[in-house]
Design a protein that fits this description.
alpha+beta; Rossmann fold; Elongation Factor Tu (Ef-tu), domain 3; 5-stranded parallel beta sheet; 11 helices; 22 strands; globular
């Protein structure tokens, strides 16, 4: 293969990762050119990001000059606003937690950006993501056996529902476990992957820094960008308040006695207990490593499920839907009058409620996400306080004290049929089928062992251990060994 005849467009952001990606491709002999995309106008009235795109463009242009490749500029701010920012506002208004980086990759970097790159004659688009892609024959035994690792049984026989190409592109985790970015690419299609290149996926971050320094690239010492994709590090509530109105409401702390009165919680506990293998007990503890700020995994490639396969299969669609339903808190507080002080001034207060209490005020339930700890302004607790639920209709935020609070964890979630996305069309699950995969619901969360259950009503994910902070709008992503197979919006 004559690489000099293959034209590659590198999305050069001004950061060290994309810079090294461009450098390595040039060193390998590809016909490389760089393109910097502007996705946000700092002068825009909606938001002013801390990360100035002018500076990033300046660094990117210097990198291209140093490497010796053509440099182009493209303004994709209109597409970014329509496909990513408007989506964010809409999701938060509904009390959901979107991931703009996932949408940015699907809608901008590997779609709108690719359209422009093709006009310049590009055969491929390359980025600085820490992941790897490989092409395999669709009938590869290795690909199928590895991707169905831990499958309990395929019932009924697989019938392909999507057109399957003759060759399949697999997305594999990056070599650096601390920087793997496959999660952000979980919505890419086979067509998008067919013209995607990730030149640094086989490297670790320190190796990338070393290469950049040895090549004397202007971005070698540049810090990694943070915040919203292509916008910068901004205060999220400030960002959302540009379009979503601030309306004060109550912050309600849910106390432990509440869960003995909630019929859905009781039913879920009894049902999950009934699914367990003999001799096992239901563990509601969410294992957490505060010093690492991450949820821990079981440390196994794919843990053995604590639940019985036949019991899971026997669950009706209605049962699975109830297992995946988050608790809906509806605490009522009555008031009473009393006299205070030597002058017996009449005052009003809330009657004591053993299930909960009002502990503060907020500026809008849509500005908070499940699992959030910062920005609550609630004191008087020995342990941290977390958001366990939001109700945008009632404009209430519900919180609980401690990492082990019952309202902070769930075992099951649902992905609606229209939200299920398979990267591997040859491995699509059929209704009635169960498979064992590893799943994460947020970036950098250690992979969690789970059972995927396909039904006509959607894809249900039953985790072996309770998961902290499952929020609607997040992406659940499933893996077989090191390969990412699919994703869906919770």
């Amino acid at each position: 293969m004559d690489k000099s005849k293959i034209k590659v467009c590198v999305g050069l952001s001004g950061g060290v990762d994309s810079s090294v990606a461009a450098y390595l491709l040039k060193q390998e002999g590809y016909d490389v050119f760089a393109m910097f995309m502007q996705n946000w106008h700092d002068a825009d009235s909606t938001l002013h990001g801390d990360c100035e795109w002018e500076e990033d463009r300046f660094v990117a242009e210097m990198v291209a000059r140093k490497i010796g490749i053509p440099f182009y500029f493209v303004d994709l701010s209109k597409q970014y606003r329509q496909r990513v920012v408007d989506y964010m506002f809409d999701e938060y208004a509904k009390g959901r937690t979107p991931n703009p980086d996932v949408l940015c990759n699907r809608e901008i970097k590997f779609d709108a950006f690719w359209d422009v790159a093709r006009k310049y004659g590009a055969d491929y688009v390359a980025t600085g993501h820490y992941c790897q892609v490989e092409e395999i024959p669709v009938a590869s035994k290795e690909s199928r056996s590895e991707a169905t690792q831990g499958v309990w049984g395929i019932r009924p026989p697989v019938r392909e529902t999507l057109a399957v190409p003759s060759k399949i592109h697999r997305i594999l985790e990056g070599a650096d476990p601390n920087k793997d970015q496959t999660y952000f690419l979980c919505q890419l299609t086979q067509e998008q992957l067919s013209h995607a290149m990730f030149p640094i996926g086989h490297l670790t971050k320190p190796e990338v820094r070393r290469i950049a320094k040895e090549a004397d690239l202007p971005s070698a010492e540049k810090k990694d960008s943070q915040g919203i994709c292509f916008v910068g590090k901004v205060d999220l509530p400030t960002f959302l308040k540009q379009k979503l109105a601030s309306v004060e409401g109550d912050v309600v702390e849910v106390l432990d006695p509440y869960y003995a009165t909630d019929p859905l919680y009781t039913w879920q506990q009894e049902t999950l207990t009934g699914l367990l293998k003999p001799g096992l007990a239901l563990d509601r503890t969410v294992h957490y490593a505060p010093e690492e700020k991450v949820l821990t995994s079981d440390g196994k490639p794919l843990g053995v499920s604590p639940f019985r396969e036949e019991a899971i299969s026997a669950l009706s669609d209605e049962d699975l839907a109830r297992l995946a339903t988050p608790l809906h808190y509806d605490l009522q507080f009555e008031t009473e009058t009393y006299r205070s002080g030597k002058h017996h001034v009449k005052k009003t207060r809330y009657k004591e409620n053993p299930c909960g209490r009002i502990v503060g005020r907020h500026e809008g339930a849509q500005f908070y996400t499940i699992g959030q700890r910062k920005g609550l302004g609630i004191g008087g607790h020995s342990e941290p306080v977390f958001v366990i639920a939001t109700d945008t209709d009632a404009n209430r935020v519900y919180v609980g004290e401690g990492h082990h609070h019952k309202g902070l964890s769930r075992f099951c979630l649902r992905v609606a049929p229209e939200e299920i996305h398979w990267i591997r069309p040859d491995l699509v699950m059929q209704p009635g089928e169960l498979r064992r995969y590893r799943v994460r619901i947020r970036y950098r969360q250690p992979l969690q062992s789970a059972t995927l259950i396909m039904r006509p009503s959607g894809l249900y994910i039953l985790f072996d251990a309770p998961q902290r902070g499952i929020s609607p709008g997040q992406f659940a992503v499933w893996y077989a060994a090191t390969e990412m197979l699919g994703s869906g919006v919770i």
